[in-house]
Amino acid sequence: MNQLPDFWRTEVFHPLSVHFPIAILLVAFLFKLIALGSAKEVWKQGGTILLLLGTIGVWIAIYTGNLADGIVSRKICDPTVLKQHQNLAYVTAWLFTASLLLDLLKFSRIRLLTQKKNLLSILCIVTLSIGSGYLIYVGHLGATLVYQQGAGVYQPSGDCAEFN
Known about the structure:
- By secondary structure, the chain is mainly alpha-helical.
- The protein contains 5 helices and no strands.
- It has helices spanning 13-36, 41-72, 79-105, 111-114, 117-149.
- Helix 1 packs antiparallel against helix 2 (41-72).
- It starts with 12 loop residues before the first helix and ends in a 15-residue tail after the last helix.
């Protein structure tokens, strides 16, 4: 009789950790866009906090994705999609890291930087918009891996005997 595998498998950690930064980073981008046209500090500060949490989360997702890679790559039909997903995930993580650094530079006491807050805000928005585009595409590639190739998905037996 077949047994169901444990839910807490290494390849499951990635989908559990990746959805938080996707949502948080996209909301951070919206907060930063709203902050450009608003005098309220809540949008600026909220966007910074969300960007910080999302950037930490995206690096955790990269780590768990690397853990899953060794398991999933042997079970899918087209590993080139997985490699593209992984490579573009790194680009995405670095774009959001750059956005966070640009955002945090606005809090610097360096005179040259304090005079360039508007430029730093615009550069932050540019990197956030590019990063968000990459994030959406990387998510699409991840969904392609799961829904077209069954990456990390348990395939029950034909008669589903393991559920009895």
